[in-house]
Specification:
By secondary structure, this protein is of the alpha+beta class. The protein is 20% helix and 24% strand. It has one domain: CNF1/YfiH-like putative cysteine hydrolases. β6 and β7 form a beta hairpin.
Length: 245
């Protein structure tokens, strides 16, 4: 397997048979705003270049990633029985060699596995998905005791960069009043939202106590990460998890 030195291997106490990887913008062949490892086919980048980038990523994996058509929703699918191109924002595997994948460029990727190393999952958790219950749905779909799960939060837009209006704040507070702690007043009618804090709250509410990662801001580190909010026209990174064969 070939890993670019800038890519992120999560630092969490997952079982040895659980493997995970998060790409950065380094190590690819794209140019301009997509430089260099853009993995997104719906970004405006040249499709052949994106295919070449995906081939570079494939060298680090045991199989082709199970790409999703992400819609900022809460649907979770079984990656082991995946047909091409489903609309979903999370996937679960129990089969060795199946690579669950989501693409990111500000939304927080949530990697999950159980302590026995029998089940793994990844969720694409932007504010819409979080508010709609993508984390709860993913934990439920894993069908194991949540207390045995470990979670890792990959790079996403940081708490001092994600300015939101009352619609976003209200979407969380109407479900959990404690979510107010994740919103810091900025200017009249605007708040800074902490996606990491919101994800941790949702994980803890589902019974997942062992949560790691968080703190890498895609918006503030343009040299390392793509950010849709910062650049609008930009590439996509990937967060991937699988069970070793």
């Amino acid at each position: 397997m070939s890993l670019h030195p800038d890519w992120i291997v999560p630092d969490w106490p997952a079982p040895p048979g659980v493997k995970a990887l998060i790409t950065t913008r380094a190590g690819g062949t794209s140019c301009g705003p997509y430089a260099s490892l853009n993995l997104g086919l719906r970004t405006g980048d040249d499709p052949q270049t994106v295919a070449a980038n995906r081939a570079l990523l494939r060298r680090a994996l045991p199989g082709d990633p199970k790409w999703l058509k992400q819609v900022h929703g809460a649907k979770v699918i079984d990656a082991d029985a995946l047909t091409p191109g489903p609309s979903a924002d999370a996937s679960v595997t129990r089969r060795a060699g199946t690579v669950c994948a989501v693409m990111i460029a500000d939304c927080v990727p949530v990697l999950l596995c159980d302590g026995a190393g029998s089940t793994a999952a990844v969720a694409h958790a932007g504010w819409r998905g979080l508010a709609a219950g993508v984390i709860e749905n993913t934990v439920r779909r894993m069908r194991v005791d949540p207390a045995t799960l470990l979670a890792y939060l990959g790079p996403g837009i940081g708490p001092r960069a994600f300015e939101v209006g009352p619609d976003v704040r209200d979407a969380f507070l109407k479900r959990d009043a404690l979510a107010e702690d994740a919103f810091v007043p900025h200017i009249p009618g605007k708040w800074f939202a902490d996606l990491y804090a919101l994800a941790r709250q949702r994980l803890q509410n589902t019974g997942v106590a062992n949560v790691y990662g968080g703190g890498l801001c895609t918006y503030s580190d343009a040299a390392r990460f793509f950010s849709h909010r910062r650049d609008k026209t930009t590439g996509r990174m990937a967060a991937l998890i699988w069970l070793a064969k």
